[in-house]
Amino acid sequence: MSVRPIRGGRRSMGSRLTLLVAIAVAAAIAVCAAACWFLVRNELSRQLSESLNQPPVGGRTVGMILGNCSEHPTGTEAPGPFLRLQQIVRADGTRCAQGWDAVVVDPADQRVALRLGERRLRDGVTDSGDPVRVLTVNVGPGIAVSVSRSLSDTDATLRGLALLLAGVAALGVLGAATAGRLVSRTALRPVGRLTGAVEHIARTEDLRIRIPVDGDDEIARLGASFNAMTAALAGSRERQRQLIADAGHELRTPLTSLRANIDLLLHSENTGRQLDPQARKRLLTSVKAQMTELSGLVGDLLELSRVSGGEEPIADLPFHDVVEAAVARARLRANDVRIDAGLAEWYVHGREGALERAVVNLLDNAVKFSPAAGTVTVRLREGGLTVRDHGPGIPEDELPLVFERFWRSSTARSMPGSGLGLAIVAQAVRDAGGDVALSNPPGGGTLATLRLPGRATPAQA
User: Fold this and answer.
1) pLDDT for 72-104, tens place per residue?
2) CA distance 222 to 193
3) 3-state class of 459 per DSSP?
4) Per residue in 217-251, pLDDT tens?
5) C-beta contacts of 5-8 below 8 A and 24+ residues apart
6) What is the pLDDT of residue 380?
7) What value does the mean pLDDT of the chain take?
8) How far apart are the first and last CA of the chain?
9) What ranges in 211-276 are assigned the alpha helix state H?
10) Taking the domains of the chain in order of start, what are their residue ranges?
């Protein structure tokens, strides 16, 4: 199974989380502030435009402006009773102002003066450069009135609002960064404990450490998974240590005997004292038997180390085909022992090689303990595999020990074998999620029962 690499960064996870929170809050505040500013601007602009539309400009008002223009042609005097800046615009572009400051005439204002009933709203400036909102209305042939109001107050209000919103945004981002920092510290505290535990294990190789797990969220699940992983690693290390200790103990006896026999042969060659031919033959036969025993023991140790790894489990593995292949292999070395097999379809999730090796070991044991011309019965029904022989059986007090490494029954110690065959069976079946047991059935012999979870038809059928 391919696993994507974990990509880190120069910043710590806490600082990155704080930065992300601050950026997210800043973006949200910026959007809200901009929306608020534009809404207020549009509303102020609408109110200002509506204020220019009332009251309507009448003939009396035009006459008063014209009268004032004759007295104050420059339009620089106070506007008198008028609240708005007003001026006459003629079709030729001349103007007559009534107010504090005259508005610069736009060509569009001249077109309004030429068209009866025409009106136009625009933004303009006064002679002194003050921005104003201008409403120009035709009031007669070749003449129009422009009413205007300054935009300075509106612009000042919008600038103040912008500064206020900017301050609120800055405080919001600062508060969000502080809250993000506190949240990240709280949320990542379990990750910190996990990191400390991993660093401690990497430094000391102490797999006994455990992380306290509270709750059932993702961090708690990560901690529980880490505890399960370290427990599995500790168990694997313990099994490895025990295997090495047991293997050393089992290898010591044949190696000592082999060394003694070889030393005796070398001593005979070095001293020139030839051994009796029969004694020499027995000695060489013993050496060969010990070498065969060592080879078998080493092979079983390698098989035991491979049975739990090196092969990906297969979904919907046809276990009946695995058993059939194991039966074919066992028949090749069964001599005069007959193997009677009856197999029904059963699909499991497991490693094909490991399960085949487990079934072969069960069959080899059954063949080895079967009497001459005996029969080994193999049945597979609904996930239950049974292997029955008619040998001497196993003492009841020894049945709980049969799957331990290097353990050999009192009835089997005179036969060849390393005592690892059934341990390999137990390991392979356990990895596939099943169980295996030996019993003494009525009528004598031994009955091995292996059960694996699965189904009678493949999932894609």
Assistant:
1) 444 434 343 334 567 888 888 888 775 567 888
2) 11
3) coil
4) 777 787 788 888 888 888 777 777 766 766 666 66
5) none
6) 94
7) 79
8) 25
9) 218-271
10) 13-48+155-198, 55-150, 218-304, 310-455
Tell the CATH topology of 218-304.
Helix Hairpins (1.10.287)
Torsion angle of C-alpha atoms 164, 168, 174, 177, degrees rounded to 10: -140
Residue 28 has which token pair?
């949200």
CA distance 358 to 429: 8
Q: How far apart are CA 280 and CA 278, in angstroms?
A: 5
CA distance linking residue 338 with residue 324, whole number of Å: 14
Provide the 10 A C-beta neighbour count for residue 385: 27
What Cα–Cα distance (Å) separates residue 23 from each residue in 7, 27, 30, 196? 21, 6, 10, 29
pLDDT score, position 65? 58
Instruction: Locate 242 and state its tokens.
Output: 């025990």
**Residues β-bridged to residue 86:** 98, 147
Give the Cα separation of 168 and 162 in Å (integer).
10
Q: Kindly report the backbone phi and psi dihedral angles of residue 327, in degrees, each rounded to the nearest multiple of 5, phi listed first.
A: -65, -40
Task: Find out if CATH 3.30.450 is the number for domain 55-150.
Answer: yes
Report yes or no: 379 and 449 within 8 Å, Cβ to Cβ: no
Q: Please report where in the chains the tokens 């033959």 appear, as a residue.
A: 281
- Residue type for position 313: P
> In this structure, what token pair is assigned to residue 76?
């620089």
Which residues have CB under 8 Å from 422's CB, separation 6+?
Answer: 361, 365, 402, 403, 438
Question: Which has the closest alpha carbon to 106: 126, 86, 77?
Answer: 126
The torsion angle over the Cα atoms of residues 204, 209, 215 and 221, rounded to 10 degrees, is 60
pLDDT given for residue 311 in this prediction? 65
Class of domain 310-455 as given by CATH? alpha beta
Dist. CA 316–CA 460, nearest whole Å: 9
Cα 203 to Cα 211: distance, rounded to the nearest angstrom: 17
C-alpha torsion angle, residues 255, 256, 257, 259 (rounded to 10): 80
Whether residue 286 contacts residue 262, with contact meaning beta carbons closer than 8 Å, is answered with no
